Every structure is written in structure tokens, then in C-alpha cells.
Model the fold of this input.
Amino acid sequence: MDYKILDHYLQFGLFTNPGCYKDILINSLPNKIEKIGLLVRKQIIHRVTLKNGNTGSNKDMRYGDMTKVPWYRQCEDDNLPSATAMLAELYRRDNRGFVMDRAEKDRLVVTCRFVSILVASILKSKGIPTRVRSGFASYFEGFGNKSVDHWINQYWDKNKNRWITIDVDGSLELYLKFNPYDIPDDVFDFSPDAWLNVRLGKIDGKHFWNAGGYDGLVVVAWELFYDFHSLMNSEIIYLHAPEMIKLSNFDKLSEKELKEIDNLALLMQKPDENFDRLQKIWKANRAFRLLRGALL
Done:
């Protein structure tokens, strides 16, 4: 692996920067990936779990007793967009930090993007090249045959000389038929593959769905650009996207514009081999780089 690429994924971005907590992460957290993942997962309640309470996959309360979460607690995605914000709030609620017995009332209520960002922040702090990836997971129960939007991580294992894909957010689901700390290549639907398969007619776009209730190629486009920005160490929030793929604009894209996205997806299928070309696009393509959102 090119040292330049590994160095890139050692760098903190706006969202993965741990700020003043870096030394704490280095010195107080274990080094084994699985132990880090379990500790991170024990600090967090997914908003869907909170909504569903002690039912379904939480009927054994492996995610905690939802009746002990304050009634006013809502999803905190909008409040804690970065690792620094999440770390500050974790230590504010319980100054012991990452502990296995964190009370339900003191956990963060966030979704998969935030788990992935926190994991990346910790591993980068410990000198492990790590990147956040955005795509789709077909392995979660409760979604029929849909593949649902999901964010995970990849870290570089220097001993095995390869990227290892992990899903910390989904790691406690007991029905998984694979190791969530070394996911096989054909399990997670990476967004570049999903985009190209839909564009080529190999998969119906409605197979891909997101938590907002949308499906189709536009949903794949959102994940593709989350993934592109994440590969560039900018793990943008859900509400930010290039103007061209906003819901009101997507159906107006020309075939030329769609083919430009096709080319991006082709490069992203092998991000290491095409790293220089992806960085060139990142530095020059305004349509792919500039975002729109509530205040953008």
C-alpha cells in the first residue's frame, strides 16, 4: 500500500478530530479493535432502538433498558455532528468516559454515521489508518429484502496488509452470519457498486432504501456522495449534499451528468488504485464538492 494513502487516512478531518481528548483515547482505551468497538457500542443507543423500546433485537435488553432513558431524550444527530462533540458530551454525562456500565440515561442517542466517526477518531488517534464508508446493509432484520443505508469503517491491518471492514454499530446483533469485525467482501453493499448496478439494470433501484423512507437511485446517489466525501476525510452530515442530487433536482440530471457520476463510482470501486484521480476530482469538481443544506 502506498504510504501516501495510509498517511491520508491517519489524518483527522473536521468530523473525526478528537480535539483535546486525543491523549485520553490513546492512553485509556484498549488497543484491540473488538474491545474498542464494544466499548463504543456500550456508550450509544440507536434512535431506532430507543423508539422500539425493549422489543425485537433488544428484548433481552442487550442495548440497555429503554425505560431508563429520560422521556425527553431524542435523537442527538443534529446536536453532536463531530467526534469532539460526542466525546465532550460523553464525559459531561459520565466523567469516567468509556465504561461498560454506562447508565442508559447517560448514553448518546445517535445513528450509524456517528458510531463510525467515533470509531475512526479513536483508531486514528492510536495510529491506525481508518476511513468511514457509506453504503447499504442487507443483513439487518426487519427490512424485508431491502438493503438499508448504513455507515461502517475500514481500518488498515499492517500485519495482514489489507483493509478490514468492520460494523461496530451492528456488531451486537446476534443473528449476523459473519464476523462484524472482519466483514467478507460480498456482504456490505458499497455505494459505488450499488450505483453502477442500478445504472446498468442489474438491480432494481427500489432495493436500496434509507431511514427517511425513500428508495431508488436518488438514495444511492446520496450514499455515493457521503462515501466520496468520507474517502476524502470529510464525513458530511445527512442533510448536506451536492445541489445536483438534492431530491428536487435529481430527476432533472442530464445523461451527461449521470455519466460523470458513473465515472466517479467507477473510480470509487477501487479507491486506493484511483486515489490520485479521486483527489483531483475532490480539488477541482465544484458540482461534487460544494454542498447544500439548511444554512449552506
Summary: The first strand starts at residue 44 and ends at 45.
